[in-house]
Amino acid sequence: METNLAVLIDGDNIPSAHVKEMMEEIAKYGNPTIKRIYGDWTKPHLNKWKNVLLENAIHPIQQYGYTQGKNATDSAMIIDAMDILYSNKVDGFCLVSSDSDFTRLATRLREASMKVIGIGEKKTPDPFIVACDKFIYIEILKNNTKESGGDKTKEKESRKQNVDKITPKVIRLISQTISDVADEDGWAFLGDVGSLLQKKQPNFDSRNYGFQKLTPMINSIDKFEIESRENANSKFKLIYVRNK
């Protein structure tokens, strides 16, 4: 049964570029049956959203800023999220924002057994990231944009700038996670490793480090050993990994 998702976008804290890639990413986790974006659409800086909303069937919600310095968009988005929660029409939420004000909302939705996926820029504060089941950086989606024409060099430079280094801390995290799910011989099914990494660190994603999948990322680190095993139930092999 497909997971129905409510996609709620904070128009004040998310750039309009790469929304198409963002919606394609969300589709991997479920069917976005509700798609709404919040903002004061009388403000000129939100004009760039108009074509994007039409192309991706995202419904704009008008929210006036009644008080100087207060973010009315946050309140409207939170109220809508709770209304949707109690409607029982969705199985999960995708909160698109780089604002830590949605930390409590993410926590509350998870308390109600909702799956919560966060999407935001790398500047997103940690409290909001860890409040989600999974957090995806928009910069990753930018890296997946196809290179074209004279922009080829710029795209490559941008990709290099956005790729994080595999630090000793990251290696220790992977190593400990392998140990946590390993059998008596030290071998761990990579699918289990990936799932536990996600629970430990919601923003863990091999794409942050320039790898499309976890297997080539782990293979690039000489601290680990990888083994492919035949799968009796499928033509695809099972990948196992252990610490050297």
Automatic annotation (TrEMBL):
Domain HTH OST-type: 166-243
Pfam entry (one): NYN
GO molecular function ontology, one term from the record: RNA nuclease activity
InterPro entries: LOTUS-like (IPR041966), NYN (IPR021139), OST-HTH/LOTUS_dom (IPR025605)
Matches recorded under PANTHER family: HTH OST-TYPE DOMAIN-CONTAINING PROTEIN, SLR1870 PROTEIN
Name under which the protein is recorded: NYN domain-containing protein
Organism for this UniProt entry: Christiangramia sediminis
